[in-house]
Amino acid sequence: MARTIQSLERAAAVLRLLAGGERRLGLSDVASSMDLPKGTAHGLLRTLQQEGFVEQDEATGKYQLGAELLRLGTSYLDVHELRSRALVWADDLARSSGESVYLGVLHQQGVLIVHHVFRPDNSRQVLEVGAMQPLHSTALGKVLSAFDPVAHSEAVDGERRRFTERTVTSLEEFEGVLEVTRARGWAADVEETWEGLASIAAPILDRRRMPVGAVGVTGAVERVCEDVTAAAVGVGATAANGNGDPAGEPELRPLLVAAVRDCARAVSRDLGARRF
Fold first, then answer.
1. In sequence order, what are the beta bridge partners of 132?
2. CA nearest 211: which of 166, 276, 131?
3. Which of 78, 92, 140, 211 is the most buried (most CB within 10 A)?
């Protein structure tokens, strides 16, 4: 019989300990509960903290489970059930919109594409399942950053690279974009990541109304936007105009926005989310 690794067994025991009882425990509590020297317990907790599995309260010094466990806990749903529930709806969205459809989930510091439906025009296209997209500049990434606290933390703390002249990189402006996204329930990327392309995305929620992914369409700016000339106005501005759109952002085609939101709602309902 293969031998087990003691350090991994102890780390798992620490996580189980923090998952029950008072939820927040001090170093002495963890050490005594596991019958370990304080130095050993501290080493386990420090390693788990560095990996994001454990967090330490600055005021009390006590430990609790970290946000990384939430991401790992929903990864099976994200990659398997989420994708299977979204297949039909994503196909319908591609047919009704005439554009490419992407389904993405949070992975490390970006958006992992777990499903991609080709634009239904028989043009030559490349399957992008498994590709990573940035959180701060793509429509999928903005939606996750706006509604998922873990994604928000990754986007705020991570590098916000400038891809085009329209990419928002300053923290203040980025937070403004996320505020608008939360208010209207969807996000857009108009030449912020790729020149000539625009995207619209909306969040997918589970039965706890927690964001588990996002779905969106991507296409040429002239097809996704109503007024392409507006794309050159107000680069980087985030103040909302009368329609709730960031200043300088061209108006997205209302029918496309509605189609993306309907698709996200349909997948969310299939995952058990209440009507919203």
1. 112
2. 276
3. 140
pLDDT tens by residue, 13-67? 888 888 875 668 899 999 998 999 999 999 999 999 998 889 998 888 999 888 7
CA contacts within 13 A on the Cβ side of 209: 3
Q: What is the DSSP letter of 263?
A: H
**Residue percentage of the chain with pLDDT more than 70:** 84
Kind and range of the H or E element at 204? strand 197-205
3-state secondary structure of 92: helix
Neighbours of 205 (CB within 10 A): 22
For residue 123, pLDDT over 90 is answered with: no
Output the CA–CA distances (angstroms, integers) from residue 67 to 141, 149, 179, 211, in the order listed. Answer: 18, 9, 22, 14
For the chain, give the mean pLDDT. Answer: 85
Q: Retrieve residue 37's tokens.
A: 């020297």
Strands (DSSP E) contained in 52-174 are: 54-56, 63-65, 100-107, 110-117, 132-134
Residue 140 is predicted with a pLDDT of 97
* Distances from the Cα of 82 to the Cα of 79, 89, 170, 220, angstroms: 6, 11, 32, 27
In the chain, the largest separation of any two C-alpha atoms, in whole Å, equals: 69
Count of CB atoms within 10 A of residue 88's CB? Answer: 12
**Residue 245 contacts residue 251 (beta carbons within 8 Å):** yes
Give the burial class of 157: count Cβ atoms within 10 A of its Cβ; 0-12 exposed, 13-18 middle, 19 or more buried: exposed
